[in-house]
Structures are given as structure tokens and as C-alpha cells.
Amino acid sequence: MNVFEKIYQELKKKYGKPAGQWRLWCKRPKTEREMEEVTMGAILTQRTNWRNVELAINNLKKAKINSLKEIYKSEPQKLASLIKPSGFYKAKARYLFNLAKFIVKNYSSLGRMKKAKPKGLREELLELKGIGPETADSILLYALDKPVFVIDEYTRRLVKELKLANKTNYQFLQKLFEENLRKDERLYQDFHALIVINGKSVSWRKKIKR
DNA sequence: ACCCAGGTGGCCC
DNA sequence: GGGCCACATGGG
Question: pTM of the predicted model, to two decimals?
Fold first, then answer.
């Protein structure tokens, strides 16, 4: 067992099955509706607390916007007012609308999109404004169940704290994790979720100490 | 009155 | 390739 597998085992022992939002994100297989909710969440959670994302998602549900097709049919201005609690709402409304438009026009559904190769999908997603490497990979891993490891701020902190590497750029870290773990979307989903859960609990302890 | 939160794009050098 | 700023809300 290498150091990455050991870290995963330790986190799993400490926190168990990822709870909260992660119950849906790590669920397999997902219904079309569930894949869509994860996809929306991937945009809305950019640099934002999950609590605020939930407020935004609830507003969308109350307004009967329950699918990417509904998003594509609505006015970006109306979307913006609904997702206000998630912050950066004017930008995110544009991002969501453009992503929904892309998926509906090119694939018609996420179920259809899932049949495509992850490599090509990733490049297509990265062309869209507002979708960088982390958001693209979150959609691939958590909405489409593709074995792509997601790198985020918590992963970088973990790498630094445990001195797993000196470089922390996205591509390098993604390769590092993928080369040291078996290619398994279930493992990638749970591992990344646990890294975030652990990171939050660490920063929470630091806050208490201050 | 601060500080923080699963990022991204646009600019600069 | 990296540093800095804007984007914005809700909670500690």
C-alpha cells in the first residue's frame, strides 16, 4: 500500500462514508435529475460555502427550475436573482446558462453526454466561460462518474502539510494522485470528498483556537 | 469591522 | 508560468 492509499484509509477510518452533500455526489448510479443537480452545484459552489449553494438550489426548485432545459429556457437575469445567495451571481448565472445551452444543444441530456470519452468532454467543458479545471473535473467525476481526480484548495493544503510534493499546479497534482491510485471513480469520489471534509474540520479547529 | 469560503478570467510581467 | 485583482453573498 502506498502513501496515497494509506491516507485514504486513514480518512475513511476517521470520517466514514462522506455525508451531507456528498451522499448525492458520491451516489452511483445517478438519475438524470441527480446528475443535473450535481452539475449545477459544481458551478454554484465555486469559491462559496455549500450552505449558500443550498439556498440558491432551493430558490431554483421553488421557481420550478429543475433541469438544465429549464435553465436554458429561462432569462439569465431571472436566474441571477434566484441564485443570489451563492455569490458572484451575475457571473454564475451566465456560466450556468451557457453550460445548460451547451449540454442541451450538443448532447440533449447528461445521460447521453456520459457516453462520450472523458478526455474529449473535458476539453469541450474547458472551452466554456466559467469552467476551469476543477469545475470540469467535478462534473466529470461527480455528475458523470468518470475516473478523473479533482484537485482543489483542500487537496493542495493536504499535499503541502504532508509534504507529498513541492509543486502544486493542477495538472501535476492530478497526475500524481491518478498515478498512485487505482483508476476507480468510486475511490476518486470518496477520497476527494474526504479530503474536503477533513480540510473543513481542520480549518474549523484553527478557528476555534483563535 | 473584519475574515473566510471546492474558482475563474483578465490583465500584467 | 505565476502574481494580482474583480466578482458577491451569508456566517463567524
Answer: 0.97
